[in-house]
Amino acid sequence: MANPLIKITNIKRDFVLGNEIVYVLKGIDLEINKGEYVALMGPSGSGKSTLMNLLGCLDTPTSGHYVLNGKDVSKMKDDELAEIRNKEIGFVFQTFNLLPRTTALDNVALPMIYAGYSKSERSARAIEVLKQVNLADRMDHQPNQLSGGQRQRVAIARALVNKPSIILADEPTGNLDSKTSVEIMKLFSDIHAQGNTVILVTHEEDIAAYAHRVIRLRDGIIESDTTK
């Protein structure tokens, strides 16, 4: 059996607020294999956003181990984590997080600048992924010239551009109407079908239904973990 892409062992995350300690994650064990499509669910305060920040190397645990693609990232320094984020993880956020005065093409190419690719390599790859998300005819448009659904497609293309190990999507349909949400979720299904590992954070059952495995958190622990 190949090693899991993600292996989390007894991860805890505490936050100090004034004089008290808030125990948000209380000892999480989790394995996710390459090519899985996982939804993380849980009510507000369950710890799902904290877990997502740890999975995305945006934060480090108070204790425990996180091995991502064979590397123990739980003890890494900020600059090492930044490099891991850029190479291994493609982020898709509810609010798109696009640069407003920059074309779709340049928004998508941005992570490749940090990864050290040449301008011609960046353009070629950015065009490739914009075609993949059906936006070839909108490459030169700025975000304010695009619909919400098109902006989220640009964000998904940007997440794919460095060929990351994981696509991490945080409430990716939160700002979209239901018809556009269905289109975006179909796109995630296509991306998963091409071999990408997708981790989706959502509080909506109909969105989680697209995933093949649903992990539910409650009060800082995994309450259930079901695979279809």
Describe it for me?
This protein has 228 residues and is an alpha/beta fold. It is built from 7 helices and 10 strands. It has helices at 48-55, 78-88, 104-114, 119-132, 148-160, 178-193, 205-208, and strands spanning 6-17, 20-32, 37-41, 63-68, 71-72, 89-93, 166-170, 197-201, 213-218, 221-227. The strands form 2 sheets. A 6-stranded mixed beta sheet has the order 6-7-8-3-9-10, sandwiched between helices. Strand 9 (213-218) and strand 10 form a beta hairpin. Helix 5 (148-160) runs parallel beside helix 6. The radius of gyration is 18 Å and the shape is globular. The model has no long low-confidence stretch (mean pLDDT 94).
**Contiguous uncertain segments of 5+ residues:** none
Structural class: alpha/beta
Strand order of the largest sheet: 6-7-8-3-9-10
H/I helix tally: 7
- The overall strand count is 10
Q: Determine the mean pLDDT.
A: 94
Cα(first) to Cα(last) distance is 21 Å
Shape: globular
* Strand and helix order: EEEHEEHEHHHEHEHEE
- Our Rg estimate from Cα atoms comes to 18 Å
What percentage of amino acids are in beta strands? 25-35%
Sketch the major β-sheet.
Answer: 6 strands, mixed
Percent of residues in helices comes to 25-40%
Layout of helices and strands, plus pairs?
Layout: E1 6-17, E2 20-32, E3 37-41, H1 48-55, E4 63-68, E5 71-72, H2 78-88, E6 89-93, H3 104-114, H4 119-132, H5 148-160, E7 166-170, H6 178-193, E8 197-201, H7 205-208, E9 213-218, E10 221-227
Parallel strand pairs: 3-8, 3-9, 6-7, 7-8
Antiparallel strand pairs: 1-2, 1-4, 4-5, 9-10
